[in-house]
Amino acid sequence: MSLNKTVACPLDCYDACEAIIVNGKIRGNKEHFPTNGNLCANFISCNKEDYLKNAYFENKKISLQESLDILISKLKDIEPKNTLFYKGSGNLGVMQSSLKSFFAKYGSILTKGSLCDGGGGHGISLNRQEVINPPIEKLQKADVIIVWGRNFSVTSSHLYELVKDKTFITIDPIKTHIAKNSELHLSLNPKTDYELALLLTRFAYMQDLEDEDFCSKFNSSEDFFELAKSRSVLSYEEATGVSLEDVNRFFEIIENKKVALVLGLGVQKYYEGANITRCIDSFAAFLGLHNDKKHSGVWYLSNSKYGYESQFESNTLNKKEKVTEVDFSKYDLVFIQGANPVVSSPNTQRVIDGLKNTFVVFMGTTYNDTCKYANLIIPSCSFLQKSDVRLSYGHQYKAISNKVQEVNENSISEYDLTKYLFDSFSFDGLKDEDKILEYYINKKVEPYVFDNFEFIDDIEINHLYEEKLDNEFYFITAKKKKNLNSSFKIDNYLYLNPKTGFKNEDNVTLTSKYGKANFIVKLTEDVKENCVLCYAGNKNANYITPYFSDESSSSAMYQEVLVSIDLS
Ligand SMILES: Nc1nc2c(c(=O)[nH]1)N[C@H]1C(S)=C(S)[C@@H](COP(=O)(O)OP(=O)(O)OC[C@H]3O[C@@H](n4cnc5c(=O)[nH]c(N)nc54)[C@H](O)[C@@H]3O)O[C@H]1N2
Ligand SMILES: Nc1nc2c(c(=O)[nH]1)N[C@H]1C(S)=C(S)[C@@H](COP(=O)(O)OP(=O)(O)OC[C@H]3O[C@@H](n4cnc5c(=O)[nH]c(N)nc54)[C@H](O)[C@@H]3O)O[C@H]1N2
Ligand code: SF4
Ligand SMILES: [Mo]
């Protein structure tokens, strides 16, 4: 290892930390503002990963060169339009996008939409064109932070550390760590967030808390208020399960205070996730949270690449399939990079059936669940063995990754594989690695200021509470501290409230319209009585989730489902 070189944490996380090598040891960089010298358990696990040391073809070890020869001959033999390129978020460095530029040029089908934040992002962009967070320093200036559908202290522990002494209000069906540390916890029924936002809007108006300066600039605010008035306060109270007393308490806490809202994935894992998010953002606008003379702003998962021009050519003519609905078996070859669809994509059985009926090439760092179905495995080298830049969806600081270790003999970086493929097909247009890195390191991006806000004025939601039978539960799936999506310390339990009548260690079958799976029960008061909870990475969770995409952004909707539980 070389001396005093920085390394970016590659993991898919709001914080995008930077480490530094000091005397051969890897530590959190004190000079990197959000990192402030600390790294988390997931970084340590990532550093200790059992990295793939060999390529494999039909489960037999082969050399890296042999794997590249097989890939090239396959790609030359088949029709590009019968191939699919599928990229996950195992490593979020900018250089990870290089391979897509090859497959786009080659003529593969690509994917569109997201398994993550797509619905909510679409909703916010309808309000204010782009999904960009204010600078993180503005969050530090808030007195009160509303944490809405986000497990703030767990999924962005460094951002939490910057503001942990503030007053918090949490809106979440689960009693999360941040909910326990909040002045007020509104434990609403799942998928009733838009109703809570409209209820809060009515109260804000009654208490004269509407930001008239902000709203008068955009005439759509009146229609939004009409929408909020279209139902009775009591019907909102009944639907959300949030008492009017708690709503009053909400306004007592924020009165005369500088307020910020941090919004997470929880509100948008549904068919109408975009409009639900849009409704919450419209409530925030009504209250004046976007007006930085009064308040701090709204934070979601920001478009980290805003202001940067892609340094990789992309052929916009490629056909694209919705990422959640991909039928792998339709293709002669699928190339999977940095993903674990067998665990992380919705509807596991459908994913497995698809993968069994095609030629799967997997390029990743570890032998994950998807590798069982891979015909060819190409090992990607670890983040310490490649240069990169990490942009963040949680704050505006970048983290720089230097190559601090030699590449293992039988592994390759994404950029080097891309270059090899470009050369083998005599393609041109791939920029030099150093030039690309230099661009991302040196580019300065100005903060985004929006000049138009389009309040939502109509919303139609299919209410899960109207469909739900007495013996059914809402399905909640969210992140956990010691694992990062499907990597590291995986928790396969099903969490239930003791009032459900089930016992710890019961073996149960969970059934939904889309599938069934077995789990072992763990009881906790933290889960609402009408909900069940599985953490991300749970190997059985996605057997019961729908593979259909949401209403407007081709994205996943893991919680648009009701489940029943039986002893197995
Ligand atoms: N430790 C750790 N950190 C991570 C990750 C990880 O796996 N582990 N993953 C990273 C990734 S990929 C992402 S996208 C981010 C996501 O980070 P977050 O935005 O925090 O997303 P989640 O943890 O999926 O869900 C957030 C919260 O929404 C709540 N929720 C569920 N349904 C509803 C609802 O209907 N209404 C409301 N109001 N709340 C609801 C859940 O109970 C949960 O507490 O975290 C990143 N950070
Ligand atoms: N039930 C349920 N399902 C979910 C979620 C949930 O909360 N609940 N969350 C969803 C969300 S928010 C997300 S973002 C997705 C994530 O889903 P995916 O994008 O599929 O991510 P992971 O499952 O973490 O798989 C990442 C894989 O990337 C590989 N990898 C790591 N580093 C590198 C590298 O440097 N190069 C290459 N080539 N590969 C690498 C590793 O082998 C690892 O197994 O899952 C979604 N699925
Ligand atoms: S908090 Fe997130 S970015 Fe920071 S070290 Fe941990 S996983 Fe990486
Ligand atoms: Mo994500």
UniProtKB/TrEMBL annotation:
The keyword Metal-binding applies. Residues 62-421 form the Molybdopterin oxidoreductase domain. The keyword Cell membrane does not apply. Keywords: Iron, Iron-sulfur, Metal-binding. GO terms for molecular function: iron-sulfur cluster binding; metal ion binding; molybdopterin cofactor binding; oxidoreductase activity. InterPro entries: Asp_de-COase-like_dom_sf, MoPterin_dinucl-bd_dom, Mopterin_OxRdtase, Prok_Mopterin_Oxidored. It comes from the Bacteria. Residues 493-561 form the Molybdopterin dinucleotide-binding domain. Belongs to the prokaryotic molybdopterin-containing oxidoreductase family. This is Molybdopterin-binding oxidoreductase.
